[in-house]
Amino acid sequence: MERILVVGATGAGKSTLARGVGERLKVPYHEMDALYFTGPDWAVNETLTDDVLRLTAEPRWIIDSIGSPEVRDLLWEKADTVLWLDYGRRVTMPRVLRRSLRRTATRERIFGGNRETWAGWLSREHPAWWSWSQHAGRRREIERRTNDPRFAPLTTLRFAQPRETAAWLASLG
């Protein structure tokens, strides 16, 4: 495990797992949302592909995302391991709701200095709406990729329950 993707639905805990694995294995962690959103008003990184090419040229890395469409194949081709948090909505929705409520209430700065807002809860782009609407499609996309012959060399670990993930992480030492 040198080049790792942590994938799953919004709210599954990808960033938390990626940070934990990165710390245990001493693998540099890169947060995809921070790479993608680089400025105020949710400005998108115009050099994302170049940035991801540079990061994935390194011998060791961990990224918490299936990858945005423009870099998805690149990430999957460069990775050697996929950690799939395949949790149902019963797990992801409470997590994403708690996180968004906290971020909104505390006005926590996130990617590119942006903040979640109360008005943002009405947008289809809000993490809660996004998680709900993209859950099934994201699962199908990850399933398709893990069965794609192009990505057969990848080691894929699929976790269906948070306790499985926690036990595996603890086994890393």
UniProtKB/TrEMBL annotation:
The name on file for this protein is Adenylate kinase
Recite the UniProt keywords alphabetically: Kinase, Transferase
Looking at the UniProt entry, the stretches that span the membrane are none
Q: Does the keyword Cytoplasm apply?
A: no
Question: Could you tell me which Gene3D superfamilies the record lists for this protein?
Answer: P-loop containing nucleotide triphosphate hydrolases
Mention one GO molecular function: kinase activity
Q: What is the top-level taxon of the source organism? A: Bacteria
Keyword Transferase in the entry? The reply is yes
